[in-house]
């Protein structure tokens, strides 16, 4: 840009500079892809000189245009990227001129909104995702996990898996990640519900062409127990595992048809618990254990309310009590429910071991 043009822009009033920026943005929108590098550099330099004194809406308009033009000047893109969120958003999401170092600097120094824009980029290298994991919140991590263009280091995946134990939406997002290291996935699957475990296992085996370790003795014993389930309960479990229906849809259907036994078997199958544990929780006056089991498989408040109404009808208790239990369910956190269910799983593991030992002892005595 010539010195004379620079002097003219410097003397222009803020209103005129705003109009100049708007005009330059319009020209680049219409002709930007046809401009050569020198022409585009001139447009970029004019935009740089007029940007600071322009109105917000004009800067947003310019940012949306320059963000997608490949020959915009790096200086202009860097200037836009650290502006207010409204201006920076399209640049942080779409510009290919920002380096990983630029992105990491913004992650460390700018707002949560800026970080969220970076988490939505089509391609994100592990150097950047590591920084987002360190400085970001749950929303950033869930967005990253859902973004199949985001790549993670082994340490990044390990931290995400650890944080997922406290956040069910992050568990859901990670269950689609076929690029997760096998050892991290195996560790995570021990804490996931059956539908998420099946999905993650299948995704990793398909993507990485590996075969993961067979299911544990506890899971095999539960699978044998499920062979005794009703056809309706089996159909509901299969529908959820195959993605044809959600657990909420099946729960609402079973409650509407007053299928208490089928409901117990369905919940037991999804939660990987013994049917007697679920049945006992469903028909106890104290419904605390029921709230924990249902929260662990991420049933909605509406689905849990229908379960509460069914149990009260079966127990011949006032339906007004459902409001109290539903209130407890709404405030119960996933992590609290998970800790309680782990205790149940631990109890079930001990039972499975005793059954296995009894079975081996029975075989030996039969042989003699």
Give descriptors for this structure.
mainly alpha; 368 residues; disordered C terminus
Counting DSSP H or I runs of 4 or more residues, the number of helices is 23
State the helicity in percent bands.
over 70%
What is the overall pLDDT average? 85
**H/E order of the elements?**
HHHHHHHHHHHHHHHHHHHHHHH
The strand count comes to 0
Computed over alpha carbons, the radius of gyration is 29 Å
**Uncertain residue segments:** 348-353, 362-368
Largest sheet: none
- The coarse silhouette is elongated
**Percent range for β-strand residues:** under 5%
Q: Separation of termini?
A: 99 Å
Structural class: mainly alpha
Describe the structure.
With 368 residues, this protein is an all-alpha fold. 73% of the residues lie in helices and 0% in strands. It has 23 helices and no strands. It is elongated. It starts with a helix and ends with a helix. The C terminus is likely disordered.
Question: What is the secondary structure topology, with strand pairs?
Answer:
Layout: H1 3-11, H2 14-31, H3 37-51, H4 56-66, H5 74-81, H6 85-94, H7 100-109, H8 112-119, H9 126-135, H10 138-146, H11 154-164, H12 168-174, H13 182-189, H14 194-208, H15 217-226, H16 231-241, H17 247-256, H18 260-271, H19 275-282, H20 288-296, H21 301-314, H22 322-331, H23 334-367
């Amino acid at each position: 840009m010539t010195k004379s043009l620079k002097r003219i822009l410097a003397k222009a009033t803020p209103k005129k500079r705003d109009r100049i920026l708007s005009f330059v943005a319009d020209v680049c929108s219409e002709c930007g892809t046809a401009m050569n590098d020198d022409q585009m550099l001139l447009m970029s330099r004019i935009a740089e000189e007029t940007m600071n004194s322009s109105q917000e809406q004009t800067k947003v308009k310019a940012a949306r245009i320059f963000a997608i033009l490949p020959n915009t000047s790096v200086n202009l893109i860097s200037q836009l990227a650290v502006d207010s969120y409204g201006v920076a958003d399209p640049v942080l999401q779409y510009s290919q001129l920002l380096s990983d170092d630029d992105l990491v600097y913004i992650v460390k120094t700018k707002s949560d909104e800026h970080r969220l824009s970076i988490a939505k980029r089509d391609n994100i290298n592990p150097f950047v995702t590591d920084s987002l994991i360190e400085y970001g919140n749950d929303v950033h991590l869930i967005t990253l996990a859902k973004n199949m263009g985001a790549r993670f280091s082994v340490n990044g995946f390990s931290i995400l898996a650890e944080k997922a134990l406290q956040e069910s939406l992050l568990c859901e997002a990670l269950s689609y990640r076929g690029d997760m290291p096998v050892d991290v996935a195996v560790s995570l699957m021990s804490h996931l519900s059956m539908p998420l475990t099946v999905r993650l296992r299948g995704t990793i085996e398909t993507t990485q062409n590996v075969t993961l370790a067979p299911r544990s003795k506890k899971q095999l014993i539960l699978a044998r127990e499920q062979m005794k389930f009703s056809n309706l309960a089996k159909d509901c479990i299969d529908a959820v595992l195959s993605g044809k229906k959600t657990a909420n849809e099946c729960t609402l259907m079973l409650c509407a048809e007053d299928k208490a036994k089928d409901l117990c078997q369905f919940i037991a199958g999804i939660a990987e618990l013994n049917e007697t544990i679920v049945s006992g929780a469903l028909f106890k006056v104290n419904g605390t254990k029921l709230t924990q089991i249902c929260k662990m498989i991420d049933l909605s408040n509406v689905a849990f309310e229908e379960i509460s109404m069914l149990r009260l009808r079966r127990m011949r208790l006032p339906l007004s009590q459902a409001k109290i239990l539903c209130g407890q369910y709404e405030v119960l956190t996933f992590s609290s429910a998970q800790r309680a269910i782990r205790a149940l799983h631990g109890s079930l593991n001990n039972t499975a071991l005793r059954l296995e030992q009894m079975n081996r002892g029975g075989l030996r005595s039969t042989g003699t």
